[in-house]
Amino acid sequence: MYKKNPNGTIINIGSGLDTRPTRIDLKNIHWYDIDLSEGINIRRQFINETDHLTFIEKSVFDYKWMNLIDKKENVFIIAEGIFMYFKIEQLKDLFQKLADHFTNSEIVFETFDPIIVGKAKHHESVKKLKTQSEFHSGFKSGKEIECFDDRLHFIKEWYHFDIGGKRWKNMRLLWCIPRFKKMMKIIKIKIN
After folding, report:
1. How many degrees, rounded to 5, is the angle at CA 95 between CA 92 and CA 98?
2. Please, what's the largest Cα pairwise distance for the chain?
3. What's this model's pTM, rounded to 2 decimal places?
């Protein structure tokens, strides 16, 4: 979308310490990082806001943040490592609100298969946390998002095992099992 829309808007939901906007030339793009106050306060210690990079201290479910976005069309939304922590009902409401506020836009998000729901204690990165984080949602296919709203259209999905390369080492052998291969995925949805 960057090449198609060099004057576009990018929204990073649950940005954490993602440094992507500092590693690319934003030129005429306006990038918004949305996270809770705690996350944005830590972020400010390492990354400065600019004319093209804005931090928004809000929960993704405090929908007032959508009114702070200058453009409402041709927006590219990213959500990495966050949606699986919310219930399907919450995500449905969020996607409907996104469709209310943005048109001709896309969202790319990371998710798990539903078989992972309730099993955060087995996930390598989550089990080390002191919090009681849990996985509350997952999707077998990105097509399921279309049931949330008529304005949402499934475009494509990628599987982590297909794009992770050597990172997965011997675990790549498990990708021969279709359900396992599709366990971690990235989904792209068009908002009309």
Report:
1. 150
2. 47
3. 0.86
